[in-house]
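RCC1 and BTB domain-containing protein 2, Zalophus californianus. C-alpha cells?
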Amino acid sequence: MEEELSLSYGESGKPVQATLSSLKMLDVGKWPIFSLCSEEELQLIRQACVFGSAGNEVLYTTVNDEIFVLGTNCSGCLGLGDVQSTIEPRRLDSLNGKKIACLSYGSGPHIVLATTEGEVFTWGHNAYSQLGNGTTNHGLVPCHISTNLSNKQVTEVACGSYHSLVLTSDGEVFAWGYNNSGQVGSGSTANQPIPRRVMGCLQNKVVVNIACGQMCSMAVVNTGEVYVWGYNGNGQLGLGSSGNQPTPCRIAALQGIRVQRVACGYAHTLVLTDEGQVYAWGANSYGQLGIGNKSNQSYPAPVFMEKDRIIEIAACHSAHTSAAKTQGGHVYMWGQCRGQSVILPHLTHFSCTDDVFACFATPAVSWRLLSVEPDDHLTVAESLKREFDNPNTADLKFLVDGKYIYAHKVLLRIRCEHFRSSLEDNQDDIVEMSEFSYPVYRAFLEYLYTDSISLPPEEAVGLLDLATFYRENRLKKLCQQTIKQGICEENAIALLSAAVKYDAQDLEEFCFRFCINHLTVVTQTSGFAEMDHDLLKNFISKASRVGAFKN
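C-alpha cells:
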C-alpha cells in the first residue's frame, strides 16, 4: 500500500510535522541475524523474513529476484536439502524464478510460502503434518502443495505453532496440521495431513484476512465479522469463555463493529476496526493487551492510544509483544518488550512496527514478510558529500601544491568559523594555500562536507596541525583517533613529537605508553636517533618515573 504525504496537526490546529513516510526505508540491519551480511548484500535485499525459536534463521529475496537463506537450519527449515547450519547466505535454487507474495512460519519451524502466481510451497518441521503433503516426514526442500488447491490462487498464508492456514482469492480458507485443540476447524481433534477447506459458519462467507495464534485460528470476513476456532484456554477466541472451539464461531461481542484486520500473538488477539480503533483479548500476563493491567480478557476490550487513527496492528504467534501504527506515523508498542512488561501502549521513536519486533520482541523475529522499497532519495548530507571537489557547481578553487580543490563558499562559511570571517568580503574565486600540503588541505575541506576523514596516520599529523590552527576541536579528536589506530614501532616517536608540538595531551600520553611498551624496538629506530634534544630529555625523565629502565 502506498503511503501518502501525511500532515499531522497539534491541538492548536497548526501543522506540526510533514513526513513522507514511504521515504523511510526499512532497515533490515536492526535484526541481529543480518549482521552476518555485508553492507553490499544488505543493499540488495527487497524482501525478508526473520524466524526461528531464537530469531536465528532468515529468508530474503534480492533485487535480482534470487532467494537466499541463512542461519541454524532447525528441522531443515532453510529448504536447502540438508540440516546443516550456514553462517553465510546460500541461494535457495529450488525456488528459482518464483516471486514471493507472502510467507509465514511455525515454531518447529515450518515455512508456508505463497508465490505471486498463487502457488503454495512448504518445508521444514512436519511432525504434525503441518506441511500439508500427507506425511509426517520433515521437508528438507520446498514442496509444492496442490491437493485441494490446484485450481485456487492463494493470496495470504498464516501459521500457528504447528498448523497452517491459507486464504484463496475467492475468500475460502484451507487448513492443515496439528489439531489437538480444534485449530484446523474440522470439528474433530485429529491432525489434518492435507489442505482441507474450513467450512461450518464460513461456508458461504467471503474471508478477507486470516491469522493464527499458537494453537488457534482467526478469519475476518468482508462484512467485518470475525470468526474464531481452536484453543481458548486464555480467552484468546474472545467468546467470553475458555472452552476450545473445534469449528468457526462468530465473536458476538463485536456485533456492530466492522473489523478490517486481525493479528494474533502467542495467546492474545488484536483487531483493527474500519474506524481505526483497536480491540484486544486473551492472555495478558505481560500486559500484551495494552489495557493497563495483567488480567486475561475473554471478551474484546478497547485499547486506547492517541486520538489519531490506527492504520496498522502487529503481533506474532511466537511472541507476547503488540504494536500499532497511527495515521500520523507514530508507532506504539506494549506487552513483553525486552523482558519488561509494558501494560499500556508506549510511544516509540520507530517509523514502522517491524522495528518493534526487531528490537524488543523475544525472539527477535518478523511479524510479517518485510518489504524493502528501493530508495534513491538523497538526504541533505548525502547530496553535500557528492558536491565536494565538483568543478561543475563550485564557486571557489583552492590552489595547493599546483593542484586545484573545488569548493562552495556558502558551505565553507556555514561549516567553519575560519572561513566565516576570511570569505566574508572575499570576491576571489581562487585561494592559494602554501601553509599545508595538498593531501592535508584536501582532507580538511572534505571533512567539512562529510564529517569524516580518511588519511594515513602520518598525514593525519599534518591535519592535526591544521585543526589546531583553525581551532576545529572535533577534527582534532578525529585526527588523534586516526593516529592512535595507525601507530607502530617505526612511527611512534614521530607521532609522539607531533602530539607534543600540537598540545594533544591525550594523544601524547597514548604515544608515550606505546613507546614504553615497545621500548627496546622503539629505541633502535631512526626516529629515536633523530629525536629533538629537549623531547628526548623529557622522554627519558618520564620513562624513568614509570620504571621503564628497571630490570
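Residues 23 and 377 are 7 Å apart (CA to CA).
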